[in-house]
Amino acid sequence: MGIAFAHYKLHNHDEAAESAQQAYEVLEEMHSPRSGIALRNIGVFYQEAKKYFESAEIFRKAINIPLFEDEELTMAKDYYNLGFALTKLEQFNEAIAALTRGKELASKVTAPIVEALCNEQLAFCFVSIGEYDAGLEAVRFSIDYALLTGDDSRMFQAVRVRGKIHAARSDYESALSDFKAAKSVNLENTCITDWDAIYEIEEEIAMALEQLGQNDEAQEVRRRIKAVSNSN
After folding, report:
1. Are residues 159 and 230 in the same domain?
2. Pair 141, 119: CB distance under 8 Å
3. Domains of the chain: total
4. Helix 35-48 and helix 71-88: axis angle, to 10°?
5. What confidence tens digit (pLDDT) does each residue in 6-27 have?
6. CA-CA distance, 151 to 135, in Å (whole number)?
7. Are residues 75 and 128 in the same domain?
8. 75 and 117 inside one domain
9. How far apart are CA 203 and CA 157, in angstroms?
């Protein structure tokens, strides 16, 4: 697995998955209990490579291969990772089922970070199928967790998802407030600044401004996006 993680650190995610697959096959032939760990690493590497179908298939398999140490926590993470991949594949109903199971297991073993992650994805799934109240209820836990722990990464994602829910409900004032707050969290924490996400949020801000009749401000936001993105 050492070679796989070396590729992963270099952001060579396809190569990381390939190396992890080779390690998994060797460990599986040896009937090693570490084969389950290797399998789960393959699924994560596929996610990083944006191969979500392959990742989902891996975690469907992993759920049926228990790890005897921290078994329920491992399963909670498996269901989260399966749900995440299914969300990316826009298979929202199946994703909701997986994420709900992951959230339940995480709550049972007191793993609030995993529960928060599941709720973030649940909120996105719910807004995608028009269940806005369920989305707001799910994301509330993630925001509470982020506020309690000072986890800026979770705050960034959760507040942004809440903004999407407000926008979908045509509450553009609240959406604009959340998008601006998410952008500020991203920019203020240099460890998590994601420029692609910044451009996406700025576009979401521009759309909210347009809906509020502030067309000049929306045009200025889009001018700024174009000017800065072209210089990168």
Report:
1. yes
2. yes
3. 3
4. 30
5. 655 656 666 777 777 777 777 7
6. 20
7. yes
8. yes
9. 16
